[in-house]
Amino acid sequence: MAIATLEEYLREFSVEIGDRILTSFPALHAPGDAVSPILGRLLRKPFAAQSIAICGAAKRLQHANSVAVIAEMGTGKTLMAMAIADVVAAGRPYACLFVVPPQLLQKTAREILQTIPAPGRM
Asked: What are phi and psi for residue 72, nearest 5 degrees?
């Protein structure tokens, strides 16, 4: 059978592609690994899968200058980005720059205030 579409290609080779991704990019934080206690102080609690991604991204930043959180709409990328900054700061004061489209500015600011405890409220 000739493969004619991307969907057919992915269906045919999904196992091999998945194996290659895991070989090339091994998990830095796996399910079952302890998550940062800093996540417990957030006003909004991340889901378990988000906590794993947050801790993995924070570990990546120990050895790199940047990290990317790439996921579909509605998966909590904003929450994860805020939490990553907070985990990396490890309780120290910090500044963080969020670059967002103008139409998301108010939503992002509101989410930061609803998620990150104000200094002295920890």
From this structure: -70, 160
Q: Retrieve residue 38's tokens.
A: 């800093």
Kindly report, residue by residue over 68-96, the tens digit of the pLDDT.
Answer: 999 999 999 999 999 999 999 998 998 88
Give the contacts of 1 (CB within 8 A, at least 6 positions apart).
none
Residue 108, amino acid: T
Q: Look at the pTM and tell me if it is higher than 0.85.
A: no
DSSP the chain: ----SHHHHHHHHHHHHHHHHHHHS--SS-TTSPPPGGGGG-SSPPPHHHHHHHHHHHHHHTT-S-------TTS-HHHHHHHHHHHHHTTS---------GGGHHHHHHHHHHHSPPTT--
In whole angstroms, give the CA distance from residue 28 to residue 7. Answer: 29
Q: How far apart are CA 48 and CA 92, in angstroms?
A: 24
